[in-house]
Design a protein that fits this description.
By secondary structure, the chain is an all-alpha fold. It folds into two domains: about 100 residues, no CATH class; about 90 residues, no CATH class. The protein contains eleven helices and two strands. The chain has a two-stranded antiparallel sheet with strand order 1-2. Helix 2 crosses helix 4, helix 6 packs across helix 8 and helix 7 packs across helix 9. The radius of gyration is 26 Å and the shape is globular.
Length: about 240
Amino acid sequence: MLMHYFQFHIGDYKSHTHHLTVIEDIAYRRLLDHYYLHEAPIKQRDIARQIGMRDHEQEVLSVLNEFFVSTEKGFINDRADRAIAEYHGKKEQASKAGKASAERRSNARSTDVQPTINQEPLTINHKPKNTKTVAPPFGVTESVWQDWITLRKSKKAAVTQTALDGIEREARKAGVSLQTALETCCARGWTGFKATWMEEKMTPAQKAQNNMHQLTRGLTAPKQFWAKPVEVDNDRLLQS
């Protein structure tokens, strides 16, 4: 399974790209998106068209040569390759753990142990415990994840996938990573997270940076619709 998202460190990104023009910055973000999406070296030929920047081919090639390394197979990015390898390593580890858990359950069901005649029936006072847990999402450190779970429990708020998905959606609206959103929740004692709450706490400089990030994300979004060609009635034009 290919990657659908990657961790974005705003401060680190800014320190390495502050010298880029707006067009070059957009080109770099699109090249990274393309690299993570396909998990393969980038071929120089036609790459500007593939990322929707055919009118800025020179800027695209300039960024490609600065931030990527040319090899026989194409341009690669060592940092992105490490992130991809870490992602698949965690996916493989989770898959093995799931298979081992399923095997243990299967072995437990296949035992020949029979209940004794004195076994008490299950009553309302013997409800089984809910063993369902939410796995820590990719890109969130273990310490922040545990802090967030502790916070939710202290506020008597259930730790559910639905709650986590809601925070992730609001984090995307605010232009921050899920890691940053959960860190903010822990620091401010929030059981939930809203993009508007984040904006209210921002300084003017932070709001300006966030608006630029949102603009960049909007420019990199794929077009969903194409304008329908207008049909011209030539006969009617001649009569007029």
